Write the structure tokens for this entry.
Amino acid sequence: MEFQYRNFVIFLLLLLSLSFPLSLSYTPFSPVDNHLVNCGSAEDATVDNRLYAADHSSRKLPFCSSDRSLAVRNEDPFAGSSSRLYDTARVFKKPSEYKFEIREKGTHMVRLHFYSLNSSKFDFSNAQFHVVVDKYVVLSNFNGGLSVKAPLVKEYLIWVDSDTLAIRFLPTESSKFAFVNAIEVISAPKDLVPNSALYLDSLQFENFDGWSNQALEVVYRVNVGGPKVTPFNDTLWRTWVPDDEYLESSSGSERLYFGGRIKYRSGGASREIGPDNVYKTARLIRSSNGSIPNVNITWVFPVAGGGGYKYLVRLHFCDIASISLELLFFNVYVNGNLAIENLDLSSVTNEMLASPYYADVVVDSYSSGVLKVSIGPSNESLSHAIDGILNGVEIMKLSNSMGSLDGPDSADVVLRHWPGRTGVLIPLVAAVLLVLSLSIVLRRRIIETKESIGWSKLPVNVSEFNAKV
Ligand SMILES: *[C@@H]1O[C@H](CO)[C@@H](O)[C@H](O)[C@H]1NC(C)=O
Ligand SMILES: *[C@@H]1O[C@H](CO)[C@@H](O)[C@H](O)[C@H]1NC(C)=O
Ligand SMILES: *[C@@H]1O[C@H](CO)[C@@H](O)[C@H](O)[C@H]1NC(C)=O
Ligand SMILES: *[C@@H]1O[C@H](CO)[C@@H](O)[C@H](O)[C@H]1NC(C)=O
Ligand SMILES: *[C@@H]1O[C@H](CO)[C@@H](O)[C@H](O)[C@H]1NC(C)=O
């Protein structure tokens, strides 16, 4: 009896391993740097199986005096339905910073979570602040997303080549304050940001190559033809939203869901570039009655026009629709300009169906205030096949020449603007202060190192910093 049972279990296991050979071999991405902070909270929070460390404890905030940074709890009696990250926030009345230890140089994903709390201590409609990450201005004159009733997550891709990453919060004036509910600082996979991309000006293609000194802000991340993909379901804890809102017109387009397996190839798009859930759905144009429809599918994305920003448009393709190879040919347009002519997914995926491919295009921001992506039949499309497909779109804003993603001022200018400083004696006072604070910092470091032995888990400390004088 027992013997039979064991055989049965072995048989079941064998069956399982035969039916999922690939899903078993996939190792999830494990980032070297992975700092998750539940700001303003005394308790760690586990959200979607990820542990956000509490930052509210005197031991963990050696540089944070209570009159400068405050932990605030949501007092709205009807809250509690959304994530635990939004139960608390850390509020800054003076310039303050979080510092993260960076063990691996390279691109990092930085996510800042904002949600206006209902508090008797602070009127969140009075928040207004700048945020500087490393040497980049990522938010200026920001109000914490008051206009959106839901939590707001801002995501940036920042190249870090030092041992620490500072995230600074600066109220715009002394009567205002800054806040943040949660912070993520995570090493990005090497292939997430491209080394070069096609620069599609209105007339010419150029090789675009200027990433090392640039920060990116993710402005749109869209799962075309499919449902929302949540951090729980994404390989890099991202959120992909459905495309309906951005579709100019759905006439002539068809949604597709693919139940099979997505075949990731080495050298092609990795699972971190786009998860199965993104490549398994698409919108497409299909020939019918033996003729190629004369239509494009167009998606329209509002973007900040002007300001000297460029945008990186990443288009995700996967031929989950064709019945055989070499049947799908189509054109891809960005802002009405031909970006890829006669895209042949069979050839770019090494003759494999359901294998993902992505293309990066860099465009200028135009005064129109929108960025358009279209797909449509090409002169090689076939009258009995598919005439265009798109599975996902990401749009990322590139920092301008001042190193800013929000406004014309550089980080130096923003940091200098803190209104607390006055007087003629500044250089002298500054020098004295600098020496003083250096010695204090040094002394605290020594004390801290002694103290920190018991809780080395702590990845972060919040500190005030003296606004530059
Ligand atoms: C806080 O919550 C209470 C109860 O829901 C509500 O009456 C009040 O208007 C809220 N205040 C703010 C500032 O949202
Ligand atoms: C994850 O994806 C699966 C199917 O793709 C879905 O059923 C599930 O609800 C998703 N979970 C979350 C938390 O989004
Ligand atoms: C295809 O042809 C059939 C019959 O001739 C017609 O009913 C149908 O509307 C046509 N479909 C399209 C998309 O033109
Ligand atoms: C598709 O869009 C391109 C670029 O805007 C345009 O040249 C072409 O005429 C469009 N095709 C159709 C059928 O609208
Ligand atoms: C499609 O157009 C390109 C140029 O735009 C041309 O070189 C190519 O021969 C055309 N292909 C067909 C099948 O007409």
Q: What stands out?
A: The pocket of 2-acetamido-2-deoxy-beta-D-glucopyranose (ligand 1) is lined by residues 76-78, 118 (CB under 6 Å). Residues 12-24, 61-66, 421-429, 446-459 have pLDDT under 50 and may be disordered.
